[in-house]
């Protein structure tokens, strides 16, 4: 999608934004990502694993439980983990069901590369009321800094749909671990802000 008539982004601004995002995450990582006391949860979350084999029961993805564990450590109650195939309609339906269900955060894993079945961003974008490009770029920047090529090259989106934060992550263990370390402290702040409306 191109923005006609928009001005070019200054490369220095991109570098400054990346540095600010990394500094923010580093500053809040220790404070915000630690197991919480019972009853001290940030909110409810749902995990959507985009994987054809897992969706058809042929192979269980270990990434869903990993994301769930990382979310729980960050203070979220994980309602469920669902697996869908790399089909735009199935992905959109799973994300929309999570939003309608009132979860605070939905994290999808997979389908953000450049393959023919990588359609998670296309399924996600129509659901978003507001894109949060800062989170998208923070995930990519931290992925590259951590040496996770798929995390750094991800086309994944982040944004708000209704009262729900939606984030797309790549589907490798390294990208999931790094992406969750980046997203969790930012998600806490976004959820606090949107819950004030």
UniProtKB/TrEMBL annotation:
GO terms for biological process: Mo-molybdopterin cofactor biosynthetic process. It holds the Pfam family MoCF_biosynth. This is Molybdopterin-binding protein. The keyword Cell wall biogenesis/degradation does not apply. It comes from the Bacteria. It comes from Gordonia aquimaris. The keyword Mitochondrion does not apply. Keywords: Molybdenum cofactor biosynthesis.
């Amino acid at each position: 999608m191109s923005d006609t008539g928009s001005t070019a982004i200054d490369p220095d601004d991109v570098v400054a934004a990346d540095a600010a995002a990394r500094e923010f995450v580093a500053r809040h990582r220790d404070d915000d990502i630690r197991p919480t006391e019972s009853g001290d949860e940030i909110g409810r979350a749902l995990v959507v694993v985009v994987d054809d084999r897992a969706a058809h029961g042929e192979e269980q993805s270990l990434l869903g439980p990993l994301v769930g564990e990382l979310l729980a450590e960050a203070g979220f109650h994980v309602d469920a983990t669902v697996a869908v195939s790399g089909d735009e309609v199935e992905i959109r339906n799973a994300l929309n069901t999570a939003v309608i269900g009132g979860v605070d955060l939905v994290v999808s894993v997979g389908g953000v590369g450049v393959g023919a079945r990588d359609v998670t961003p296309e399924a996600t974008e129509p659901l978003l009321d507001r894109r949060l490009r800062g989170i998208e770029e923070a995930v990519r920047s931290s992925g590259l800094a951590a040496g996770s090529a798929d995390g750094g090259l991800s086309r994944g989106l982040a944004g708000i749909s209704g009262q729900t934060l939606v984030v797309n992550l790549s589907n490798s263990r390294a990208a999931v671990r790094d992406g969750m370390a980046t997203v969790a402290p930012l998600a806490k702040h976004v959820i606090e802000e949107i819950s004030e409306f």
